[in-house]
Specification:
Shape: globular
Strand content: 35-45%
Largest sheet: 10 strands, mixed
Distance between the termini: 62 Å
Helix content: 10-25%
Radius of gyration: 25 Å
Protein name: DUF4249 domain-containing protein
Order of helices and strands: HEEEEEEHHEEEEEEEHEEHEHEEE
InterPro entries: DUF4249 (IPR025345)
């Protein structure tokens, strides 16, 4: 069982660098040492950027890929064959945080390959990915069909007190109303993204040759902009314990969450089926933190003025059944309450031929809420 969990970890790491009806399942074979190419991606229709990850498994460890190719076919036609993202591009955010020697060592340590797809996929597209590595020594492929999204989404919000960590705390409550896609079995995922962009501006006062402050015709001091940057924070925490659909009828409260005597596998990926509302509508009730405490963030920023633009995006994704089962398996594997000794073993779906991994595709409808802008400044 330990070997099986390690194998899952290798596959899950590839997707994280991005969430019985499947064609096959990841085999459990402790004696297997032959290297296998792993391909992972979670595609979204409508986006102009989707990332595909290639790893090389060597037993229970990750090997080094020197060379790899990727081809995308949509509805039987090849639409893209991108170049792998360079280590310099992938780790560019670390360049100013490490010295030259450490940064070069980091670039050399990149053992996997990442490809950026820019083709905008559409619902109903038949999508095929083919990848090779090490001059064709390894070859994998996967084929999926993008599902149709739901047609309408309504979101109502308010501030509500809920019990969290032993006390009543204010949260943002959401009532999300959706209409099931009719006459078929459907699988969905809910995601709420709180996005905060802090634009930090630093001004330097202007002085003349005598060291005196310069003023304009209105008597106001004249400043020069010396720094203008945007810092982004993204939050996806979601509390779904009161919703009968997202908990599959097992609603709980904060006391249950904190009671170690009764293990409970949380629906961390907020996936659900239409079993309780087939061919009809449903309203989901969930909560997120308010994310209105900006003190620590502002303390970390060096600024003269700071502007905050905050948006909340509610995403309702339609999923194929294999994608739903994949996330359901990860719900268990990622949960501290999962005990392989007393619970059913987990089968992690794989739909990659010739190797390992998972290719998923979703189609979404979204609802965006723009929060009031805020600003801070020393003057």
């Amino acid at each position: 069982m330990k070997t099986r969990i390690k194998l899952h970890f290798i596959i899950y790491i590839a997707v994280a660098g991005l969430f019985a009806a499947c064609e096959n399942e990841i085999p459990y074979n402790p004696g297997q040492q032959e290297p296998l190419l792993i391909m992972n991606t979670l595609l979204n229709t409508g986006q102009t950027e989707n990332l595909v990850y290639l790893h090389l498994s060597e037993g229970n460890s990750i090997g080094y890929i020197n060379e790899a190719t990727l081809s995308l076919y949509v509805n039987g036609k090849q639409t893209e064959s991108p170049q792998a993202i360079s280590p310099e591009e992938y780790y560019k955010y670390m360049q100013n945080q490490l010295d030259k020697e450490q940064y070069e060592a980091l670039l050399k340590s990149m053992r996997f390959k990442i490809f950026r797809l820019t083709t905008a996929l559409k619902p109903g597209d038949n999508i095929r990915l083919e990848a090779t590595a090490e001059g064709g020594k390894y070859h994998v492929s996967s084929q999926v069909t993008a599902p149709q999204p739901i047609q309408s989404l309504q979101v109502d919000t308010c501030t509500a007190l809920i019990r969290q960590w032993g006390s009543m705390r204010a949260h943002r409550q959401y009532h999300i109303t959706m209409q099931d896609i009719p006459n078929e079995k459907n699988y969905y995922r809910l995601e709420i993204v709180n996005n905060k962009d802090f634009r930090c501006v630093i001004y330097t006062d202007n002085k003349d040759e005598n060291g005196n402050y310069i003023k304009d015709e209105n008597g106001d001091y004249v400043y020069t902009l010396t720094k203008d940057t945007v810092v982004n924070y993204k939050y996806t925490e979601l509390i779904n314990r009161e919703d009968v659909i997202l908990t599959d009828g097992h609603i709980t409260n904060s006391d249950d969450d904190e009671n170690a005597m009764f293990p409970n596998i949380e629906n961390k990926y907020n996936i659900f089926t239409d079993n309780r509302f087939t061919n009809s509508s449903a309203t989901l009730k969930v909560y997120t933190p308010l994310y209105d405490d900006n003190y620590e963030i502002l303390q970390s920023l060096n600024y003269t003025r700071c502007y905050l633009k905050q948006t909340i995006t509610v995403r309702l994704l339609s999923l194929p059944e294999t994608y739903y089962r994949y996330l359901k398996a990860l719900n268990c594997m990622d949960d501290d309450d999962y005990d392989e000794a007393i619970m059913e073993p987990i089968s992690l779906p794989s739909n990659v031929e010739g190797g390992l991994g998972f290719v998923g595709v979703s189609s979404e409808i979204r609802y965006t809420i723009d929060m009031p802008d805020k600003k801070w400044g020393w003057w």
